[in-house]
Amino acid sequence: FSPGPPKTLQMFYAYVLKSINHDYYYKGHCENLDKRLAEHNSGKTESIRPYIPFKIVYTETFDLRSEAITREKYFKSSAGRRYLKKMIPLFNTQPSEDCSDGERKEVS
User: Fold this and answer.
1) At 57, phi and psi to the nearest 5?
2) pTM of model > 0.85
3) Phi-psi category of residue 85: left, alpha or beta, with phi > 0 → left and psi -120 to 50 → alpha
4) Which residue, of 33, 38, 51, 90, is most buried by count of CB atoms within 10 Å of its CB?
5) CB 27 within 8 Å of CB 14
6) From CA 35, how far away is CA 67, in angstroms rounded?
7) What sign does the CA torsion over 22, 67, 45, 15 have?
8) Do residues 17 and 26 lie in contact, with contact meaning Cβ atoms separated by under 8 Å?
9) Contact yes or no for 71/62 (Cβ under 8 A)
């Protein structure tokens, strides 16, 4: 019996991007946040090209793609927008693990 190669655990993300130069937010889901952000910032998504560049301002992680899609849809609802309005400032002021003296550092 050979157990074979270890299985990698695939994670899925629901995310919110904010335009750096405009008051514009984009909500989506993906498997690879860094790759997806690079795609957005390269202009691959035509509808948001006028708003680039973007930064990630909020993420949630899921085991299933369907869960990430459901959460993305929630983010786009009026209740989800209210939730994000409260959560994004908290998400972006979490203490960094690099700050041993308790300083807060913006997460980008």
Assistant:
1) -115, -10
2) no
3) alpha
4) 51
5) yes
6) 20
7) positive
8) yes
9) yes
Tokens describing residue 37: 């952000």
Q: Is the dihedral of CA 97, 15, 80, 74 positive or negative?
A: negative
Query: Which region holds residue 43: left if phi is over 0, alpha if psi is between -120 and 50, else beta?
Result: left
pLDDT (tens, 9 = 90+) of the chain, 108 residues, equals 556 555 568 899 999 999 999 999 999 999 999 999 999 999 998 999 999 999 999 999 999 999 999 999 999 999 999 999 999 999 987 654 443 333 333 333
- Residue 88, judged by CB atoms within 10 A of its CB (0-12, 13-18, 19+), counts as middle
